[in-house]
Design brief:
The complex is a heterodimer. By secondary structure, chain A is of the alpha/beta class. Chain A has 14 helices and 15 strands. Chain B is 37% helix and 21% strand. In chain B, the strands form three sheets. A seven-stranded mixed sheet of chain B has the order 12-11-7-10-9-8-15. Classes of the chains: A alpha/beta, B alpha/beta.
């Protein structure tokens, strides 16, 4: 296998998340050779801090200035389409943070417009389908690999679930999956214009991706082709807008969601008749709550992605454990807790990068690829249409390219 | 407190369950004085087993007795509504198994699979009218009506409600489920006898518990109940999947005729809060009954069954012999969660005790006619939602 040279596009949080994965593979298998971004200064600072040889002020400069096999798009979602197409046209393989794309408004709309309230979801869905098709065609024409960084697909508990499901061999009848916590702290998560949606987009995309991948995998294994989602119904809500909640003097949950939901549930039906319940909330206390449970005809398997009871602790008050990390978004370190021994391992961040590098150098498809990326984006916006119009949405025509 | 004399209508499984509850109460508080059932021989056997002095095969005759204060309706679902009305007219208090009523295809030929043929909207219309009739009869009679929703009385659920009251936060979201690997009884597999599928037979429990929680919350905080506003529902038949049907060995029950074996109802309440209510006849691992409440300042889960009060392991299934483990568990091997006392966990003796006390003290039982009607109407509205593929506003159907 040849060494894969990677160019990072972006130097923010997601870039930090991907770096340990590349590092852990060793320089003979892959190397991050360059980083680029809108601010050359910040790109240079990131490169200096991380020991990356080159820094550039744009993707075009990086593509012209250094030899590489793949780019890793760790930039805000609204830039994915343009950059993915540009990279594909240059013949580079693509690693793309979620999401593939979304709806973030139009150039002529005022920056402060609350597009989650003003733009019909059906129009958003049209745009997202269109962009997915553009990316799909660019990738196909260029013949490059597309790797979708859905870490749940690589989380060890989920991978074990898939192996157990393979061993059992039974039909996956029903899946239940959720990602929730007490709310994103960042302002960008609270506006459609910057986030592209609410809880379902920012959190629900993970359990949704895992569920879609599981049925894809089941179909490929048993029938020689993926089992595709067929229809959905969805409800969304703003639980922190409830009058009784607003009157409470103290809030433990994040508030100020502007035009995006803080809770949602998608009920998916697949073409083989199986079903999935996908839930997401920014209104859940007790730390992050990430799991997937699969109900097979001859087995039942639960993947507790985070928390799990690998480590269980108790402290009579919140200060006992001092600065030691417990788990994502837990409100107090007092009482019983489930401290996470290694969150980036249990959530699959290292494993996803390893698969991408191997797929690119070995000339095979990654476990999490373009079909999954596209299905997640389209299903999410179809779900918003369902919730807004109060009707079931048929996915068949939307997913046929 | 005066003694409550009970006439038992029915002599099957749920009659036995209820008798057990009456027997746990002190004899000066209540006594089962009569039983009515068909065929008469079976009712006589039931009476002999449980020491009940009088046996009838005609409900009207039992109602005419002066030494019956209350009747317990453990009869087939389609008899609930007419029996309640008859009992109310005779001035007898009523304790009724779920559901209050439903659509049972009385207006269609007996062989017709009404779950496939009758539009759910028509069912909802008929069920709504029947609920109005029953509630009207109850209101004008002034009798006490107990709805046998055992979840309301389950100790874990009661504890959840006390914790929620102590916390005082807003109940933002409720998640609740009743599932297992499928009812054995044939009656559960046809709409005509069951009045619906998983959602009706199983989902009515978590639905009732979720509705009651918001009802209480509203009464405590606003002086008026918080009511369901809309439902969005999906149902499915997972055991009809071709891949499943091709499998050689089935661990799940099959043979569902015109009823769903899985369903989910997403309820929105008039305060903006939500509930996800799930039911399945396709779940392995034993019964799976829980309710989790997400409050603004607390999160509370009631594990109704199973719980981890007792945790056991056996290297093979034969180790525990005949000792009971838990409802619908497929094997006693491996790790299990044996139920120390399933009746107690699930609130069966508690619901009977509350009904008897309500009659003796002339007060409303915790689970009454309003909840019974709400559950029935919301369920059929959910079926309309699933069939028509759209959200259904339930406010108009709930007065």
């Amino acid at each position: 296998m040849s060494k894969v040279r990677i160019g990072l596009v972006g130097y923010g949080f997601a870039a930090e998340l991907h770096m340990p994965g590349y590092r852990s593979l060793g320089p003979e298998r892959c190397e991050v050779v360059a980083v680029c971004g809108r601010s050359r200064d910040r790109a240079e600072a990131f490169a200096g801090k991380r020991g990356i040889p080159r820094a550039f002020g744009s993707l075009a400069e990086m593509l012209g200035g250094v030899g590489l096999e793949a780019v890793d798009l760790v930039v805000p979602n609204h830039l994915h389409t343009r950059l993915a197409i540009e990279a594909a046209r240059a013949g580079k393989h693509i690693i793309c943070e979620k999401h593939l794309t979304g709806y973030f408004g139009e150039p002529d709309m005022p920056q402060d417009e609350l597009i989650g309230k003003t733009v019909p979801k059906a129009r958003m869905l049209d745009r997202v389908v269109e962009e997915c098709n553009l990316i799909g065609r660019a990738v196909e024409v260029a013949g490059v690999r597309f790797c979708y960084a859905e870490n749940w697909v690589y989380a060890p508990a989920f991978v074990k679930l898939r192996r157990l499901a393979a061993a059992a061999g039974g039909t996956i009848l029903r899946m239940e999956a959720e990602e929730s916590h007490s709310g994103s702290p960042s302002v960008y998560a609270k506006r459609w214009r910057t986030a592209g949606g609410g809880s379902l987009v920012l959190k629900g995309s993970h359990p949704l991706g895992a569920v879609l991948q599981l049925k894809q995998w089941e179909g490929e294994r048993k029938l020689g082709g993926p089992i595709r989602p067929a229809s959905l119904v969805c409800e969304v809500g703003n639980l922190t807008w409830i009058e009784a909640f607003k009157r409470e003097p103290k809030h433990y949950l994040k508030t100020d969601w502007q035009d995006v939901e803080d809770w949602g549930v998608i009920v998916l039906k697949f073409e083989d008749g199986s079903v999935a319940e996908i839930k997401a909330a920014d209104t859940t206390l007790g730390g992050v709550h990430n799991y997937l449970e699969a109900y097979l005809s001859n087995a039942r398997i639960r993947a507790n992605i985070n928390p799990n009871d690998a480590c269980v602790a108790y402290a009579p008050s919140g200060d006992i454990f001092g600065d030691e990390y417990i788990s994502e978004k837990i409100e107090t370190k007092g009482g019983w807790t489930f401290p996470s021994p290694d969150e980036s391992w249990s959530q699959g961040y290292l494993h996803e990068i390893a698969d991408f590098v191997e797929a690119i150098s070995g000339g095979r498809a990654p476990v999490s690829g373009l079909m999954l990326a596209r299905d997640v984006a389209v299903v999410l916006y179809a779900a918003y249409v369902s919730a807004e119009e109060g009707r079931r949405v048929d996915l068949g025509p939307l997913l046929a390219d | 407190m005066p003694e409550v004399r009970v006439g038992m209508a029915g002599c099957g499984f749920s009659a036995s369950l209820h008798i057990h509850g009456y027997k746990q109460l002190a004899p000066e508080r209540c006594r089962v004085t009569a039983v009515c059932g068909l065929p008469r021989a079976e009712a006589e056997g039931f009476a002999a087993r449980h020491g009940i002095p009088e046996v009838y095969d005609d409900f009207a005759e039992m109602l005419a007795r002066a030494d019956v204060d209350a009747v317990d309706l453990a009869v087939p679902n389609y008899l609930h509504a007419p029996f309640i009305v008859a009992a109310a007219e005779a001035g007898k208090h009523v304790f009724c198994e779920k559901p209050l009523t439903g659509y049972f295809g009385e207006d269609r030929p007996p062989e017709e699979l009404v779950g496939n043929t009758v539009p759910k909207r028509e069912m909802l219309r008929q069920v709504g009218a029947r609920c109005d009739e029953v509630l009207g009869a109850l209101r004008s009679s002034g009798i006490r009506f107990g709805y046998a929703e055992n979840w309301i009385y389950a100790p874990a659920y009661q504890k959840l409600w006390r914790l929620a009251k102590a916390a005082g936060g807003t109940i933002l979201r409720i998640e609740a489920e009743e599932s297992h690997s499928g009812s054995h009884a044939d009656y559960a597999k046809r709409w005509r006898t069951a009045g619906g599928g998983s959602l009706m037979v199983k989902g009515s429990h978590p639905l009732g518990a979720a509705l009651q929680l918001k009802h209480w919350e509203g009464e405590v905080k606003l002086g008026k109940p918080i009511r369901p506003a809309s439902v969005f529902c999906e149902v499915g038949n997972l055991t009809w999947m071709p891949a499943f049907q091709e499998e050689k060995e089935h661990y799940l029950r099959t043979g569902w005729q015109d009823v769903e074996d899985w369903g989910i109802i997403v309820v929105k309440f008039d305060d903006g809060s939500v509930a996800e209510v799930k039911a399945a006849d396709t779940t392995l691992g034993g019964v799976h009954n829980y309710l989790e409440a997400y409050l603004s300042n607390a999160r509370i889960r009631a594990n109704i069954n199973p719980t981890d009060a007792c945790v056991a392991y056996a290297p093979e299934a034969s180790v525990f012999g005949d000792e009971y483990i838990v409802e619908k568990i497929e094997t006693k091997g491996g790790w299990t969660l044996p139920s120390p006392d399933e009746d107690w966990n699930q609130g069966y003796p508690q619901e009977i005790a509350d009904f008897v006390a309500a009659v003796a003290e002339d007060r409303e039982p915790a689970s009454g006619a309003r909840l019974a009607r709400d559950v029935t109407v919301v369920l059929y509205a959910a079926y309309v939602s699933a069939e028509e593929g759209r959200r259904v506003d339930v406010r108009a159907f709930l007065e």
